[in-house]
Every structure is written in C-alpha cells, then in structure tokens.
Specification:
The complex is a heterodimer.
Chain A: E1 28-32, E2 44-50, E3 53-60, H1 68-72, H2 81-85, H3 92-107, H4 113-141, H5 146-166, E4 175-176, E5 179-180, H6 186-211, H7 214-220, H8 228-234, H9 238-243, H10 250-253, H11 279-303, E6 322-330, E7 333-341, E8 351-355, H12 357-362, H13 365-368, H14 374-384, H15 388-392
Antiparallel strand pairs in A: 1-2, 2-3, 4-5, 6-7, 7-8
Helix pairs in contact in A: 3-4, 4-5, 4-11, 4-14, 5-6, 6-11, 11-14
Chain B: H1 10-32, E1 60-62, H2 72-76, E2 82-88, E3 106-114, H3 123-127, E4 133-135, E5 150-152, H4 158-165
C-alpha cells in the first residue's frame, strides 16, 4: 500500500507519533559471536534486544571444547603439563603451577627454595603479561587502538625472556613436577630487573592514556554493576570479586608456596570513579595488581640464592590412592584442580577436574546484561576478561 | 536505568565536555611523542630475521646415527607423534657406538615424526639418553599436504638437511 506522502508531487507530510517512547517493539534475537572480535574467542552470546537495549543475554559455550579433561586420563603425570598449558593460554605458567602443585601435594615432594622463588617470579611476570593483554584488548574493544600496541610492546619483552628460559613463547612446559625445567642465569635476572625499572613509568603512561580518560570513564563507570553478594552467590573470584570491593586474594588469605614471606597489597575496587563492581573498577583492579606484581618480583630478585632447581622425584611417577583439590590465584581468578588417583601402580590420573574462574564469570553475564545498551555489553564482556580455552577446556 | 547521561546544568555539561577534550589531548600528546626518539620495535620479517634463543623449541630433528632405538621419546610423547620401528642386528655385524659411548644393539628401520601432530612440548628431548633427538631452529616448514609434514629421519638427504638447519 502506498502512502500519500510517497506520491510524487504530494504536499502531505508523515505524521509523527508523539508517544514513541511508549511503543514496545518485539524482542529481536541477535547472535553475538562465535566469530566476533569483542567476545575474546569463540563465545556466542544470544542477545535479546529491545531496540538498542539488551533485555537478556544467554552465553552459549562449547565452541572450543577440546576434551582436555578426558584426554588427561590417558596420559602420564608429566605428559599432562603440555595440556594444562592450553587451558588459559595467556597465563600458561599459572595453569602449570596449579596442576604441578596438586601432583606434588599427593607425592609429598619437597621443592627446593630456589625453584619456588623462580616459580613465583615467572608466575608474577606472567600475571603482568596477562593483565597487559587484558588492558590492551579492553581498550581495543572500546575503540582505542594505540594502547593495544603499547601493551603488546611491553608484553613482548616478557615473552622474549620466557622464550630464552623455557624455549617457547606461549605454551611453556616450564614448571615441572619437583621444580622448574631450566635455571635463569644472572644476565637474564638482570634483564628482569631492568625491565621492571623501565616498565614502572610505562604503567603511569597507561593510566594517563586510558584510566583517567573522560571518554573511557563514561564508557565503563556505572556499567555492568555486580554487587558483592551476587559475586559470592555465583562464586566469582579474582579481579571480578575484588572489583566489587571484596578483599579476597588466595596469595594473602591462604598463602601457598612462599607467598607469606612477601609484602604486597591486595587492590580492591574502591569506587574512585563510578561505583564498586562496575567495569571501571574491575579494570583498575587489574592495573593496580600489575604494580603489586612488580613489588613481588623485586623481592624475589633480592631473595634469590644459588641452589638446586629440582627436587627428588621418581623417574616414573605413581601417585597413592586418594584425591586432592588445589586452588591458586591465577590472573583471572582462582583455578582449582581436582585430581583423583586410583592407586594400584597406575601411572595416569583417574580423573582431572578443572574449576575454571572464567566459566564462573561467563555465567554471570545474564546477570549483568539486562538494561544495558549493546555497546555497553561489549564493555562488560571485556571487563570480565575471559579466555575461552579455560571456559570450554 | 537511564540510557542518557544526565547533566543537571549547562555548566556541568560544558565542564564534562572540557574534561573530555583535555584528557584526550593529554593522551594524544603521549602518542605524539612516539613520532620522534622512540626505537622501532617491529622488524620486516622475511628480510630481517630475529635470532632465536638457544633453547627455542622449533622443528624436531633426530640424528639417526646416534639413535639406539630405545623408544623412550615415543613413550614420553603426550600426542604420540613419533613412530619408531627397529629389528635385531644381523648376526656377526660389528656393534657401533654412539657419540657418548653407548653401543647400538638394534637396527633402526623407521624413525618418523608427524610434525603436524607435534605440540613442541620438548618432553621427548629430555628423556633421550644419547641426546640425538633435539629441537632445531627451523620454523618455516609449511606444506601443501598434511602428509608432507611427516619427516622420515632415515631418508638419504637428511644429512644435507641437517647441515642446513642445525647450526652448531
């Protein structure tokens, strides 16, 4: 049917409804992902949109499922390490250490002091690299391209150090049962301290460039708010929980390894901009954690003394019958490894269950999303900093 | 839930606008300083190549002359990408020695690594008793077919290939 104003030469004007606000359209289903630059991997989020407003968001997982847990049941205990590397491929060192700690706890291995210190140093360097990646891609999600390049420039220096020590840039297989594979020599340790000296002014630059930028604050402050109670109900950990203002860090609250010797703070979202629990506070917790990691690494470099890097481990590892659950503070939250051994001279784990922090945080998306604009939803996904390799396993 | 950022007054509106421009200019100034005096960090890859660290784990290489067919590497491999076959030495043949003095008692008939399956974890190199299986520094081995990724280390041209990739 043709309208009057469509007829050529007509002077009729279309009438405008004054009460457009009260009109309700049907919900439109929009698939975000699996191939989408803002979903940080192959995550598909099914969004129900009411015009530009998100009414509901349902995450669909499983696009990166690699059967890792089942596969580990057919591998010897050393062969599992390359597989746990591929969980959170941006923080492989933390993944390795959690798994290795579980095996060592069952085996009763005593790890030499130098190996423990080197582990803490590599894991904290990895935390810096992982948070730099989170910072760069978060700025990229919100339309700022340059911070991404600055972050990758610094991350590259850490990866280069890891490559020299372990031989690989991303999937290291460096932390072994009983110790670490290779020792750091003095020249590499000097380069670590030089890197830290040069990196500290860089973090201040990031704050000037991004954290205090008015446009960035408007995009992230008061967006995607979760309360402490919701975080605890869902079991959120890491920067998401601390961003809501809850001071919980396993390195401080239940110190494992040698973390009780170190002096560092646990940054929480204090609502300096926005309110605690919003995207800006989750972001700033990560940036402040980088500073704390620098503090820890400096103390490690002071404490390091020459010594053995490998404890006494049998050539073929056979665990006694039993089970163990070990959790550690990884860059994205608490990673838990539940390892069951059936004994009977078995060289393979009976079951290896991974409790993934990113999985918990992804399941919080339906809670955060309703009422947001679609563009704010992108900011919300970026702020929880998920890695899909860990979600799907 | 408001979709528009509320501004209570005209003054507040302009002050927010001013802060936005000011903080952006401060950020732009940091970027602007990169025009001069900052060292270029990227390299033009095919012409300029980075020197890999000594421990870098690239394509595997087996020096078949030193291999004693112990199959420890195949057992350590988490993805089972190493195929080894061996048979008894013929009667009366002379027993050779490896470079570190172990005697070779089995005749190696097949040593193939499927590089497409390999996960470059390095576990096989750590268990090798004669240190004949090592990671070389060769990282350019794209192939047109998956079969091309299977490397037979008993092939006659392997010595020339070794001299090309293994720098000692």
């Amino acid at each position: 049917m043709m309208n009057k104003w469509d007829i050529p030469g007509s002077t009729e004007k279309p009438t405008v409804n004054k009460d457009t606000e009260t009109l309700r359209s049907d919900l439109l289903t929009l698939n975000m992902g699996p191939q989408h630059p803002a979903t940080h991997g192959v995550l598909r989020v099914e969004i129900k949109t009411d015009s530009e407003v998100v009414a509901a968001a349902i995450p669909h997982l499983g696009y990166l499922h690699r059967c890792m847990e089942k596969h580990c049941e057919n591998l010897d205990y050393r062969g599992v390490i390359p597989f746990v590397d591929r969980l959170d491929y941006l923080a492989s060192m933390s993944m390795e250490w959690t798994y290795v700690a579980a095996v060592e706890k069952m085996l009763g291995t005593e790890v030499p002091r130098r190996a423990e210190l080197l582990r803490i140093m590599t894991v904290e360097l990895q935390r810096i690299a992982s948070h730099l990646m989170a910072f760069g891609t978060y700025a990229l999600d919100l339309g700022a391209f340059t911070p991404f390049l600055y972050a990758f420039d610094e991350r590259e220096k850490i990866l280069r150090l890891f490559e020299e020590v372990s031989g690989a840039r991303l999937l290291y297989n460096y932390i072994w049962i009983g110790g670490v594979w290779n020792d750091w020599n003095d020249e590499q340790l000097t380069r670590v301290s030089e890197f830290l000296d040069a990196f500290e002014p860089e973090t201040r630059k990031y704050h000037t460039l991004v954290s205090t930028n008015k446009i960035f604050i408007e995009r992230t402050a008061n967006v995607g708010i979760v309360s402490i109670q919701d975080c605890l109900d869902y079991g959120a950990t890491g920067p998401v929980l601390r961003g809501s203002g809850f001071k919980w860090d396993l390195r401080k609250n239940q110190p494992y390894s040698l973390y009780s010797e170190f002096d560092f703070d646990v940054p929480v979202g204090d609502g300096e901009r926005g309110v605690p629990g919003d995207c800006w506070n989750r972001y700033i917790v990560r940036m402040r954690e980088v500073g704390e990691s620098i503090k820890i690494i400096r103390q490690v470099l002071e404490k390091l003394e020459p010594g053995s890097i490998m404890g006494k481990v049998p050539k073929i590892i056979k665990l006694p019958k039993g089970e163990v659950y070990v959790r550690q503070e990884c860059p994205r939250g608490e990673l838990g490894i539940h390892l069951i051994s059936e004994g009977n001279d078995s060289k393979e784990p009976y079951r290896l269950k991974v409790k993934s922090p990113c999985f918990t945080h992804t399941s919080m998306l339906p809670l955060m999303a309703p009422g947001q604009m679609v563009a704010d939803f992108v900011a919300t996904i970026g702020s929880i900093d998920i890695v899909l390799g860990e979600v799907d396993r | 839930m408001s979709y528009v950022v509320p501004h209570n007054s005209v003054k507040q509106y302009f002050s927010a606008l001013f802060t936005a421009v000011k903080t952006t200019v401060v950020g732009m100034w940091i970027t602007f300083r990169y025009v001069w005096g900052v060292k270029v960090v990227s390299i033009e890859y095919p012409e300029v190549r980075e020197v890999l660290p000594e421990r870098a784990r690239m394509r595997l290489f087996n020096d078949a002359q030193n291999c004693i067919s112990c199959t420890q590497c195949a057992m350590a491999c988490p993805v089972d990408c190493i195929y080894i076959a061996s048979e008894k030495m013929p009667e009366g043949s002379e027993i050779k020695k490896t470079s570190n003095g172990q005697s070779i008692r089995l005749k190696l008939t097949q040593f193939t690594i499927d590089t497409a399956l390999c996960c470059y974890c390095g576990l096989c190199t750590t268990v090798c008793p004669t240190e004949c299986l090592t990671h070389s520094h060769d990282y350019e081995f794209a192939q047109y077919t998956v079969d091309g990724m299977k490397y037979d280390y008993l092939a006659p041209d392997v010595r020339a290939w070794r001299d090309r990739i293994v720098k000692t």
